[in-house]
Amino acid sequence: MKFNNEKGYTLFSVLLVVLLLTIIGGAYLIVMTSEARQSVWHSDRTQAYYLARSGAEAGFKWVLNNQREYVKGDGDPEVFLKGDFEQGLRLETSANPQEPINVVIEYDASFGSLSEGSFRIISTGQYRKTEQRVILNLESRTDDDLNLLFDKALFSVEDISGGFSVHASIIGDVETNNKFLAGYNVTGDIVEDSTRIYNSADFKKVEEDLEGKDGNDLIISGGGPNTPPYVISEEAHYSNLTVESWNILEIHTGGDNLRFLIDTFRVAGNARVDVVGGGTVYLFIRESGTIETPNTGVGDLIIILDDGVHLDIKTPGGSKFSGYVYGPNASVTLDGIVEVEGALIVNEIFGETGSIEYKEFDFDIEFLKDYLSVIIDYWVQNFRWE
Q1: Which domain-ending residue is among 96, 111, 140?
Q2: What are the φ/ψ torsions at residue 385 (nearest 5 degrees)?
Q3: Which terminal residue of the chain, N or C, has fewer Cβ atoms less than 10 Å from its own Cβ?
């Protein structure tokens, strides 16, 4: 009887040990499985996060490349980018949650001006069944310091190419929103991929200010080597202002700022435009311009080009044009061995043999505030992650 009791006790002990080992083994297996799942989940979550983060950074780059459109008022308030690492991101009309990377860029102009606003970049990364989202807030501000106007020999929105001639040189600093691909011999700093933005001039306001001052056509012709100058001293709007060969147009400023709105402007070879009286002349050219001879009113002539206008400066015989040209959405050709003394702000510049020498001239900067709107230097991005 005692033996049977001991045998039963031993069996019970063995079963108890087996049960405990089974429980411990099962618990260990559960823990190991859970840790494995946690590790996989954490790995997937990390992958999804970095997909989202890379999407946000791509969105930020997109904002930098397209901010000019928002300043001009043409930017979309909502933009969608989607794609993956291999193919890159592409612009779409709507979000697609099936893509590994989805980016939504929201623009808010609540600051009251299209030149100041904020961007909210919402980027979602998806890896297998795990999603992660990051939000990048960008705040922008403008720099309205007009002293930045004409502070370089040449500013171009597009690539600067051409200038592949022994005669082509730029004395002064050069800056472009894109790349410097030219052969110019540059004495000064070259800045590529600039975020500087210049707005178009307000030609509508010029037209309003000169309302009732229509000068119709002014064609100065029939002159010779000893012909006295043709003098104007009143602001006007000319549909066509042409100075033919061997004629002189003399603009008397009386120490003031004079504005002229001109649809078509042409100065022929051996003609001349002189600015006298100590003031500054602003030529707002709305359709086209051709200058075939030097301007002798050094520093007193500022040419402002409307969007899409092309100005052809072709001073023969190595003569010199002196003044400033402002046309951030216009183009200029330096045709022949032309020398420009002053500064150019253009969308694009053409020509192989022209040269530019930077020179500062005194003019009334405050006067231009009514017409050049806001000159935006650099957008400042204040990063804030959510």
Answers
A1: 140
A2: -90, 145
A3: N
